[in-house]
Structures are given as structure tokens and as C-alpha cells.
Amino acid sequence: MNVLLDLTGPASTVASRPAAHDFTGVVEAIGTADLADRLLTFFAGFDGADHCALFELRGFEFTEIAAAEGADAAVVARSDLNVYEVKRQLSMVGNMGARVDVAMVPASDPMDPAAKRQRILICARRADAAYCIRVLRPAGAAALCDQGLGMLQQVANMLISVVSKHADLTLRRPNLTPALCSLEEIEDCMTSGTDLSKREGEVCARILYGLSSYGIALDLGIGKESVMTYRKRAYSRLGIGSQRELLMWYLAMWSKRQASRRPEEAAA
């Protein structure tokens, strides 16, 4: 998939800027540890950037999702951005609008006025949260021109949507570790919601628990050939054909079971 954003304008106006920014790498990095680095590369096309950080604001919980910086980037002064600053920026746009703000902030040496750096802040709301992209440009770099700012405003909503999707995939990724920690829990889940026999459920539970066919045979006091037979029957009943498919089937069932338990626990 190629996603090319034409962010240049007339060649005579921005002769030093590339003809197009390749956005493909940014899209492909959603949900991975590389997103901040890909965004930093993207923003570097706007006449330089050496730091990029992504934030989520949910209520008054302000979370840094990811960050990246160039090899020669100066120390970042983090005090310039907080909940109140983001809320102030958001108050200037509608519910689905994106705010692009450019300001000068302290660099590594706040006592040196010349060390200030240009900060680009992109903020927008999505559903019940707000998202922010902070980009810092090197101290001494020429200010972002009006044309560059206009280009950023054109893609601001799309960039925020990328960050929102990334947060959904990373911050709220379900913790499935408990699903495979208790053999008793696995057995109960395998047998209560299926038409597997007790022995078929026991064999499948031990496969999920990480035992080999020989280990299952020893644990259940049956022959290895019997283990293979019970496994084959169970796979046939469940409509699956591999251990990976068994794992995917079980995790889906376990997650559904946990979700159904939450209302009961809340009521109790």
C-alpha cells in the first residue's frame, strides 16, 4: 500500500522540500513500537525536527504513548506541556477539529534565551479522549513558514486519527496472561462452554498449558496414542486443525467469559 501526501506547493516557493512525503511507513507502524520514529521522520520533512512525542488525555489522566528523538537531539524540557495546556488548546477548536499551534519553548539550557526551540503542537478530540502530537525543532532552526504550517493543518486530523488508533491498540491491549496461568481455569473454560468430553477437555487444557503429548499422557495416566486420539476428536468437534487455532479459539472464549463475569462482579 502506498500513501503519498503531496505537501509541497510550487517548486519556486519550497525548492528544498521533497516533492512528496511518503506516509506509508507511518500507517504501517500503527500499533508497533516504531510509530514515533516514523512520525519523527515524517515531520523532519518540514524543514527539520529532532523530537516527537505522542500523548493521550483521558479526563485528567495525561499519558505519554510514545516518543522518539534524533541522534543529535538536545535534552527535552518536558515542563512546557501539561493537562491544562492541552485543554486550553482544545478549547479553541470544535469537537472534531484539530488545533495546530506553534510556540517557542525552552531547550536544554533554560537560562540561555538563544536556546529556545520551536514547538509544534497538534491536538484534537476523539470519542471520550483527546490526543496530542508534540514536535520539537532544533534550537536555531528557521521558524516554520506559513506554507509549512498550512500543510500541517491539512493533515492534522489524519495524524491525530493515527495516534488514536495506535493508543487503542497499545494502551488498551487486553492482558491475556491470566488466561493461561491456571490449568484448572483452562479446564473449566474448555468443558463448560463446549460439547467436549471430560477427557477431550483435559487433553486440550494441557496442550494450552504447554505440556507435550508425552507429558499429558503421564499427567493423565493414559497412553500417548490415547492423547493423540482425544486431541483429534476435540479438534474435530471444535472445527479447528492446529494448536495455534486451538489457542485462538480458547482466548476468544476466555475473553468472552471474562466480559460476562464483570457485570456480575460489579453487582456483587
Automatic annotation (TrEMBL):
SUPFAM superfamilies attached to this UniProt entry: C-terminal effector domain of the bipartite response regulators
Name the record gives this protein: Helix-turn-helix transcriptional regulator
Origin: domain of life: Bacteria
HTH luxR-type domain residues: 210-237
